[in-house]
Amino acid sequence: MEKIREYLERIAPLSDQDWQIFSSKLVKRQFPKKALLLKTGQTENHLSFMEQGIVRYYIPKEDNDITFAFSFDNNFISAYDSFLSRSPSICQIQTLTETTLWSLTYQSLQEIYADTTIGNTIGRYACEGIFMTKAKRELSLLNDTAEQRYLNLFTEQPQLIRQIPLKYIASYIGITPQGLSRIRRRIT
Fold it and tell me: Which of 76, 79, 93, 173 has its CA 20 to 30 A from that of 45?
């Protein structure tokens, strides 16, 4: 739980009282590899800090799922659009490794916003971080070649190559597994 405080302290200093309120609402949840944290059609009710693990966000399709995001240790995870709007999710979230989460419910987060002096600041920075990640991904899909997206991913997240099946990486960069194999042969 201390990793969460360290993460939040990088955003803004937390008083002991604010931390007490925040930490009292966290619930530890542990999942095995390949567990579904959220299914299509369910409303996301958790904003979670991932202490350990890797998850993928994807849209299930009959032929091939579309993977559009990954999250790693020491980051917040959520189907945030569903969480905020309180509407059914169009995506699924699956663990790719054993995963440990510290989770807040939607109601608990609203209480933190109301009961702490720093809650809204943390919420704003978290939203801005999510926006910047999504904007960077969208711009990459519009401007970069598949090979450049792969190289960027390899440079920014080298753990992907070792821990995530290549079919998910191929889907994430918008190509077939065969296309990824050709790119990997070309650059090695």
Answer: 173
Tokens found for residue 118 = 């720093």
Q: Could you name the CATH architecture of 2-130?
A: Sandwich (2.60)
- Residue 87 CA to residue 100 CA, distance in Å, equals 25
pLDDT digits (tens, 9 = 90+) for 80-94: 999 999 999 999 999
User: How deeply is 178 buried, as exposed, middle or buried, from its count of CB atoms within 10 A (0-12, 13-18, 19+)?
Assistant: exposed
Biggest distance spanned by C-alpha atoms of the chain: 56
Distance (Å, rounded) from C-alpha 89 to C-alpha 71?
A: 17
pTM as predicted: 0.89
**Amino acid (1-letter code) at residue 67:** T
Q: Which two tokens stand for residue 115?
A: 């009961």
C-alpha span between 86 and 32 (Å, rounded): 27
Cα-based distances in Å from 54 to 8, 77, 160: 20, 10, 9
